[in-house]
Amino acid sequence: MTSTITSTTGAAATAGSTVPRGLTGVVPPVCTPLTPDLEVDVASLLRLVDFQLAGGVDGLFVLGSSSEVAFLPDRHRATVVDAVVRHVAGQVPVLVGVIDMTTLRVLDHAHRAVRAGCAGIVVTAPFYTRTHPAEVELHLRRVAEQCQTPVYAYDLPVSVHTRLDPQMLLRLAADGVLAGLKDSTGDDAGLRDLLTARDDAGLSTFSVLTGSELTVDNALRMGADGVVPGLGNVDPHGYATLYRHAVAGEWDLAAREQERLLRLMRIVHVGSPARMGRGSSALGAFKAALRLRGVIDHAVTAPPQIQLDDAEIDAVRRTLVATGLL
Fold this sequence. Notes:
CATH architecture: Alpha-Beta Barrel
CATH class: Alpha Beta
Pfam family, one: DHDPS
Protein name: Dihydrodipicolinate synthase family protein
Order of helices and strands: EEHEHEHEHEHHEHEHEHHHH
Oligomer: single chain
Number of strands: 9
CATH superfamily: Aldolase class I
Largest sheet: 9 strands, parallel
Number of helices: 12
Shape: globular
Radius of gyration: 19 Å
CATH topology: TIM Barrel
Family: Belongs to the DapA family.
Keywords: Lyase, Schiff base
Distance between the termini: 43 Å
InterPro entries: Aldolase_TIM, DapA-like, Schiff_base-form_aldolases_AS
């Protein structure tokens, strides 16, 4: 059962509903193309960025889960940030995931991202060690205090094993610590409760973005500000179309596009569970689709992930044909 969130009061709560929203729209977590020898394929990465921009996205998020951030060494992370921020050159905001186990490690990544010129950083709760809610809040406050850039919390309990407390999120928003949230909990009732409490508190500049690719139309109708879709790597135009329909109040058209994207999302299941995990299958499918669409050169994923075989890649190809992408 989801508990009700009490409205938060504070300086930011007095701003009123006339204050414009912060980050909105479609902000895909950009895949990290790799070469066969497991270096960052910068040429493919920049083609992918251009593919996203041409698809009508409103921002980019590098070094998130779909970017394989957990698998990349620091030098790969630095290469991705420098290349993308320089290439985008302010056309859209570029958020950088500074995801790591502890505050000091996160701060190292954050300072580097800020020096590179990012538009904001994305931070999970600490992980590996068991963390008390007070420690999670201290973590977020300390990162924000030491980094002169907007901070977005990333609620990712499936990987971090910690659910961010909604009361804490609104308290940090009211205190100016957090600019927004990527919600990847999959809890639509909890998301609606958070959005209602945010609006009741007048925290209208606190952006709430859903990470659930298959219920974007519902989240936008509830008041979410946008979406961070891993599948948006493969079909950025589809998510941009869905978002524009929602903004225009064309909910039937938004639902129709959402259902097409749902069918496309079936590619994440092509990998046999007898020989690989869900992550290997999903990220391998995204990269296979991008290679089939001519965007990147190789569908290599970082170890210890297992690569898709020819039959699984052919299943991706058939789905792309069925959904109008090939």
